[in-house]
Recover the amino acids of this structure.
């Protein structure tokens, strides 16, 4: 994707000459949408990123958030990061997804943290398409093989199928790391005279032009023509790099660090020195290479994986080399930090000589026109209860995800107290307490394309609320979030209008929840010959609770069932629901709670009560799917919705900010939600192993075994 004429003119004016061929390609990549956020940058100021616990906010490789502990003087913190590998995962699903995992893990390493958990949020076209299943199989295998090999558990995520992703799937991966802030390293170069040291894999020709490739629509022949732009990962080298990085940080050998991702060495080194208002002198021939005859552009822009760029004081260079050799990693001193320009030499010639800040931050933002999406009309289907239940519960979008997560090692590291398949994962942070149990760290990640397709702004608000509700259902209070904002071609006013709306909605709800958005990623130009994707605001949110023993999703089999948050006596709307996706029709998206933070706080408090025996949020598939997921062969549910004005909306509406609670003390639950949200008694749990639902004129009765068979869509098809 060559430089635009306006960009070339701007560069020529600043340099006082025409850019060299190497400079042109470097600017092309660093000024791409993928690196420079030219279309989204004006919108991102909507997010509130500051908070009492925020140590490092947006702009670095990963955010750093302090953990509340028993010891007020504790310096324990987590890192949070998220990134997309969308285009590469379409071209090469296995390597594209695997290298997405590797990249976000290295973002964690560059902050001085040790990675402790991953989440993956995956979006594909219709499940009944053979090509969709091919992509799904390759992506899941790539994530599993890479994550399992490096010993970082994949503990949660989401999976959605929607026609809008048929020609452009999305792979969004988040990583959480753990560190003591005394070990914190940033991507800001510290002082002139320090060496720039490249550690890790040798540089090859893979991933060339990956940043610019990610900044344009997928062409019809992308699977064959764009394969050289996809990186090839080596998880075993990544594992060595993880351990080497840990030792380098332990020995205080690193002044600043950046992983080599988008735009390769050029991106990492230019951004590193630019953040310190400095420059660099780089000898490209000093880079350790695995292919003969590489030219300057290939060395500078290749996105070969498992590489880190470190700033190291001269007296520590030899020790860094020794550590790299100890772990069988390549190591080369490629230059030094200087005052002045960012320069690169090759074969005796200066091939790059430009201000680092101009390379890294000089791309002007776009002021693009936006058109607001229209509100859908109400046009509702009318299937009978049993048919509706069977279709919604048996949909790939609400089906069991066990086929996916059983391929992941989610127990490695011995921290996983609640793993995949629950509302949110819970990790045991033992280091937060010297005696007894410490902090439980809850993680939830995902988005819902049906919601944001129906109403981008309100749907995005719902995504944020659902993730917070997932945390609260495990007794956790939200702490911070990172986002991955996926959209289509921003040059289309309708597409950009939808993207602007998801930013407004996500930022607004996170502010209402008092959850700082401390970092993220933007992925635009997710268009193909089939059209643009739905605007997709993936959110990865973390929360904290005391201890690790969170209430389960599965019913105990003896207790009152309460629906907290409303939805029985009002008409919440069916817009964005799987019910409409299965039967056709349209409707407005349901309205959300007036005080979402109060709801989340009350739910977390109820989840931590001893008299609460199960909690499950109501979202995808509505109350019907929530109940289906709670019943087991040992515990059933008798649910009475007689008198409900709109049973279809009550059972299949997907308004978030609701949960089903099984309790021995319903009055305690009512007291917790008094003045916050409605609480409806909907029945009791039983020991029958059946789900029985009564509405005016209709009755549904189904065993847990039959429900499980209906929900085993992925297993039945993918095995």
């Amino acid at each position: 994707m060559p430089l635009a004429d306006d960009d070339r003119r701007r560069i020529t004016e600043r340099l006082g000459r025409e850019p060299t061929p190497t400079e042109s390609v470097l600017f092309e990549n660093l000024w791409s949408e993928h690196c420079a956020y030219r279309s989204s940058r004006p919108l991102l100021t909507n997010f509130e990123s500051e908070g009492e616990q925020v140590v490092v906010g947006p702009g670095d490789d990963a955010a750093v958030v302090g953990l509340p502990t028993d010891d007020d003087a504790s310096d324990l913190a987590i890192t949070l990061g998220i990134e997309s590998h969308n285009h590469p995962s379409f071209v090469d699903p296995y390597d594209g997804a695997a290298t997405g995992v590797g990249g976000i893990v290295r973002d964690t390493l560059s902050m001085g943290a040790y990675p402790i958990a991953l989440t993956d949020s995956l979006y594909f076209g219709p499940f009944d398409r053979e090509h969709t299943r091919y992509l799904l199989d390759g992506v899941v295998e790539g994530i599993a093989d890479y994550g399992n090999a490096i010993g970082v558990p994949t503990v949660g995520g989401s999976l959605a199928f929607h026609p809008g992703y048929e020609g452009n799937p999305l792979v969004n991966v988040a990583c959480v790391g753990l560190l003591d802030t005394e070990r914190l390293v940033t991507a800001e170069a510290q002082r002139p005279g320090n060496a720039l040291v490249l550690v890790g894999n040798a540089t090859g020709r893979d991933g060339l032009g990956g940043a610019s490739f990610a900044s344009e629509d997928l062409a019809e022949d992308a699977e064959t023509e764009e394969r050289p732009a996809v990186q090839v990962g080596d998880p075993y080298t990544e594992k060595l790099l993880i351990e080497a990085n840990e030792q380098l940080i332990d020995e205080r050998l690193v002044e600043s660090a950046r992983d080599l991702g988008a735009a390769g060495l050029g991106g990492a080194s230019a951004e590193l020195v630019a953040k310190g208002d400095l420059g660099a002198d780089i000898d490209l021939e000093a880079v350790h290479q695995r292919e003969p005859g590489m030219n300057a552009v290939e060395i500078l822009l290749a996105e070969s994986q498992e590489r880190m760029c470190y700033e190291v004081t001269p007296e520590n260079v030899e020790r860094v080399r020794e550590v790299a050799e100890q772990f069988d990693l390549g190591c080369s001193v490629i230059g030094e930090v200087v005052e002045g320009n960012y320069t690169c030499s090759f074969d005796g010639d200066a091939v790059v000589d430009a201000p680092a800040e101009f390379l890294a931050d000089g791309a002007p933002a776009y002021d693009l026109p936006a058109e607001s999406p229209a509100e859908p009309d109400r046009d509702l289907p009318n299937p009978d209860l049993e048919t509706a239940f069977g279709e919604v519960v048996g949909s790939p979008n609400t089906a069991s995800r066990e086929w996916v997560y059983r391929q992941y090692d989610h127990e490695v590291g011995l921290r996983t107290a609640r793993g995949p398949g629950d509302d949110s994962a819970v990790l045991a942070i033992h280091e937060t307490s010297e005696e007894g149990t410490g902090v439980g760290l809850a993680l939830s990640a995902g988005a819902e394309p049906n919601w944001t397709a129906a109403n981008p702004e309100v749907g995005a608000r719902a995504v944020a609320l659902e993730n917070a509700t997932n945390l609260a259902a495990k007794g956790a209070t939200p702490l911070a979030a990172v986002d991955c904002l996926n959209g289509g071609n921003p040059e289309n006013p309708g597409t950009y209008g939808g993207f602007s709306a998801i930013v407004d909605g996500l930022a607004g709800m996170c502010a209402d929840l008092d959850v700082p958005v401390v970092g993220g990623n933007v992925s635009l130009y997710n268009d193909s010959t089939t059209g643009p994707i739905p605007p997709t605001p993936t959110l990865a949110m973390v929360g904290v609770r005391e201890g690790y023993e969170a209430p389960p999703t599965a019913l105990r089999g003896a207790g009152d069932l309460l629906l907290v948050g409303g939805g029985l006596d009002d008409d919440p709307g069916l817009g964005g629901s799987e019910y409409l996706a299965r039967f056709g029709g349209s409707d407005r998206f349901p309205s959300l709670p007036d005080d979402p933070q109060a709801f989340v706080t009350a739910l977390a408090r109820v989840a931590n009560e001893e008299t609460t025996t199960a909690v499950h949020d109501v979202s995808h598939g509505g109350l019907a799917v929530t109940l289906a997921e709670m019943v087991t062969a040992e515990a059933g549910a008798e649910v009475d919705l007689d008198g409900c004005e709109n049973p279809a909306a009550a059972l299949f509406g997907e308004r978030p900010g609701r949960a089903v609670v099984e309790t021995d003390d319903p009055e305690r639950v009512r007291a917790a939600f008094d003045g916050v949200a409605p609480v409806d008694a909907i029945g009791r749990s039983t020991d029958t192993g059946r789900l029985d639902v009564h509405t005016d004129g209709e009755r549904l009765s189904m065993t847990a075994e039959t429900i499980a068979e209906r929900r085993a869509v992925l297993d039945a098809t993918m095995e």
User: Anything to note?
Assistant: The mean pLDDT is 93. The radius of gyration is 26 Å. Residues 124 and 169 are 5 Å apart (CA to CA).
